[in-house]
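tool=predict chain=A
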Amino acid sequence: MTDALFSPAYLRDPHPALRALREDGPVHRAVLPTRLPVWVVVDHEAAKAVLADERVAKDHRRLGEIMSAKLEAAGGDPRLSALYRGNMLVMDPPDHTRLRKLLAKDFTGRRVEQLRPRVERLTADLLDAMPSDVEVDLVEHFAFPLPMTVICELLGVPESGRAPMRTWSQHLMGEAGAAAALTASGEITSYLTELIAAKRADPGDDLLSALTRASDDGDRLTEAELLGTCLLLVVAGHETTAGLIGSAAEWLLRDERTRARLVEDPDLIPRAVDELLRLTSPVSLTTARFTKAPVRVGGTTIPEGEVVLVSLPAANRDPARFADPDTFDADRPTGHLAFGHGLHFCIGAPLARLEGEIALRHLLARFPRYTGTVPADDLQPRRSLTVTGWRALPVVLDPARP
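tool=predict ok
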């Protein structure tokens, strides 16, 4: 049982702990702050294998039973948030297949590309609204509002719901502890239930209205699935991309050589986004899975009925897969697991890439010399075990020339 994970030092910089664990083996037992005992996979080859293994399942009913029982046995709170029910992220086929097929047409590369003009406009507007000669928080005023606005417009969430949605979402990610996550779970569920009812009564030209109509068409989408899908889209649709944009901007503060190269040759930015996805891994730990049978990982057997997580930052910096893994290389062949692997590969990957590319392209074109205003060691990471990123990134966008 390792105690190297989930400490304050780990949250500050997980890579020293993950590096040591990788060197000691591909999978380790650990305990989450909630007291849930888990197995954590930390190398690239094992991560790909586990993410594609049908014996490592996601059925939310059985998963919920296992997690609640383990939490209760450990003296923890056995209640789980709404993220653990009714959405395709915690479903196996055939339910997963049915829900993913329903959504897939809205997240194809071609369909997402049609959003480019709107994302370009939103990005330009956000940059226009920020002062350029005094300190501004690039997370608060850029990295979060861009993907939040895009996903809320896509779904049809009104502007009045977006501020509380962000708070609920951050609490669901564990920013304020387990009790706050459960409270947020109830509040966001109530809000979305009312929003779904409003869309059913007066549908609009948005994705949530389309999903509501689909739920009324035979048995394609149950009410619980509609609610769970909406919750998943609004939370996953902005949290990870916000982390990517903020972390990428912070990386380029420190890596001035790479920044200069991207400013000089903006056509490299799409490839740079993939490399920054690998280096920053916006998702820290995959959502929970459970073993339906004993599973051999390296030299270790994970018994049946155990909870399994995959550390994407560990897999994405595995030197057995990536040469010189802690450095930026825009010419590096792809192969990262930032969007997962297998059946549950992130359906929103094309949208995240589009938003990340546009955000960096506009930021670097408009403010190529943006400068941090606090030492790197003073930046505060997010307090989530699920997503990565910075709580704030204070910068001056256009500092005076020396």
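The two ends are 53 Å apart (CA to CA). Residues 8-396 form a domain with the Cytochrome p450 fold (CATH 1.10.630.10).
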